[in-house]
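Appendix B, record 7
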Amino acid sequence: MSDVDKWYRDYWARHQAREVMYRTLRARCLSCEDRPELNEYEQVIFDRTRHAGRLLDYGGGDNRLKRKFLAAGFAGKYETLDISREEQHTYSSLSEVSGQFDAILCLEVIEHMSLNDYVDLMDALGKLLSPGGVLVISTPNPLCVVPMWAGDPGHVQQFPIADLAADLVVRGHQVEAFRVRYGAWPKGIRERTRFFAMRALCYLLSVDYAHGIVVIGKKEAPQ
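Structure tokens (predicted):
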């Protein structure tokens, strides 16, 4: 067995879904700037999950997003999972988690694992997600002109946006996707001119200025 054999178990179904994604998926770009309140990227996630009675943040990290959600009025139960002991989390392993969730966040996690580990994780999260629940996955953008290894040597695997969206479709989700640009939108004539020049150059080179992608899937209820 290889490190990718599980990824290819649904290859043709995902291939067909990917072709549809190439034709139909529209991913506008969101800003992800460092500020105390929810930024544009986080606001989109909040809007899709704000009514969840129970939310799991897989890879909760420093709990920054949890604090922002609660400050923004999230009234559900916000549970976190992370292998790091540097912050206090609800769980340190998926084996500790039980029950189902109305929303699951998996932000900047899957790039740190092999394709087989990704498949195992999605299988596990799929069992924890309630019908009609929302799954949010973010990861670096493979098309970005800045490679994902420039910021973290622990990155392992890249996920093109159409492939990631197609995988959620095959798993029974309705999907929407966005691209994510780190930092605030440019202000002032000089910054805007430089930004639009960069966009034009990226277009000509068939690369992207957006650093990340986020795919949001809503699990379809059984008929």
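Remarks on this record: The chain has six helices and seven strands. The domain at 5-219 is CATH 3.40.50.150 (Rossmann fold).
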